Amino acid sequence: MSGSYQVIARKWRPQTFDDVVGQDHVVRTLKNAIARNRIAHAYLLVGPRGTGKTTTARIFAKALNCAGGPKADFDVKDPVCQAIAEGTHLDVIEFDAATNTQVDKIREAILDSVAYAPASARYKIYIIDEVHMLSAGSFNALLKTLEEPPPHVKFVFATTDPQKMPLTVISRCQRFDLKPIPAELIVGRLRKIATDEKIKVADAALACIARMAEGGMRDAQSILDQMISFCGGEISEPDVLDVFGLVAADKIAELAGAVAAGDHQRIVAIVDECDANGRDLVRLLTDLQALVRGALLDAIAKGGRSDQLGGTPLTTEQLTRLLDGLREGEGGVKLGLAEKINFEVTLLKAVEASRARAIDSLIKELATLAEESPAAAGSGDEKKKA
Ligand SMILES: Nc1ncnc2c1ncn2[C@@H]1O[C@H](COP(=O)(O)OP(=O)(O)OP(=O)(O)O)[C@@H](O)[C@H]1O
Ligand SMILES: [Mg+2]
């Protein structure tokens, strides 16, 4: 037996730079800084929840303090690295700003001790999570140390909310922005985990989980955990759809096709069906928006037109209107009251919006034509004169 149960997100926390998924720009720059011995004294990792901030901070701490370092290709079995991974290394201090906002807390845990040499390692590394939660007093107290920390001190800050930080602090850090992780990379990572954990998961089920996670790897892994407790060793797409009230990908595509074609009857029928099956309409709206957005990008790439939505060719302008319409109704659908009606109205209005604009630009086009060649405007007199 492998000891006590650990949730997937913790068990599968990347231990090396190469394990980190979808943040190549951050990893590459950090690796280069280490290789060139150009290590700044303070870093700020910004990004949505569960995308690798704390993970990257710990890996970076390992690279700095490992035996024979600093080096990016440290040995995970190195006792220093193991202690850092377990959060027991004396010189790598993790400070949760969310629960320690007051200035005396930061003084006690950090400022009073920065001057002392590391206990055993090369650097004393302070990882401050949710740093935006610090009080103004705490930030002020931190500022001076941050300006000129002792050479053995490094700071790594992590936050989901950099707007809440004073610019004076941000400007003293090297900032990295972690990105939402693309669905296909989340699927890849989940696939690896499932294989290793001997869980059979259908590709469509993984795609579904990734779709729900919206770029967050922790969320994706928590959903997978939940599905395993629900289904055991074999997970199918309908399982995931049922547990989370999602609509199947091909049904969403069908609905998008109906919207693109302006087929009111089919729209209403599909919405009826989804609602009767207890599907989450807010989620469905988000998924629909994602498809329309995909078609819009496709249209832009292809010079102004896409037939990705059920084969109906739509212009960039129509797709923009459609997306706008779907977003406008979002608030109403999210209200939860008369959800189904609001959802239907949103779709039908979006359809109208995309068409109304088409007529609009038609008129504009006609007007331009008329200007360019007065003859085409149908003025018989002018024709005679010419
Ligand atoms: N880029 C990534 N590659 C691989 N796994 C990841 C990545 N990001 C997150 N994870 C997984 O999600 C878990 C949580 O990640 P982490 O603690 O780094 O998130 P975070 O960005 O600090 O989130 P929060 O803002 O909630 O603190 C990790 O243990 C790991 O399993
Ligand atoms: Mg974190």
Any overview of this molecule?
It is a single chain. With 386 residues, the protein is an alpha/beta fold. It folds into three domains: 8-177, Rossmann fold (3-Layer(aba) Sandwich); 183-244, Helicase, Ruva Protein, domain 3; 249-368, Zinc Finger, Delta Prime, domain 3 (Up-down Bundle). 56% of the residues lie in helices and 9% in strands. It contains 18 helices and nine strands. The strands form three sheets. A five-stranded parallel beta sheet has the order 2-3-4-1-5, with helices on both faces. A two-stranded parallel ribbon has the order 6-7. β2 (92-96), α5 and β3 (124-129) form a beta-alpha-beta unit. α12 (249-261) packs across α14 (281-301). It is elongated. The termini are far apart. Residues 382-386 have low confidence and may be disordered. The structure holds adenosine-5'-triphosphate (ATP) and magnesium ion. Residues 9-10, 12-14, 20-23, 47, 49-55, 158, 160, 181, 189, 217-218, 221 line the site of adenosine-5'-triphosphate.
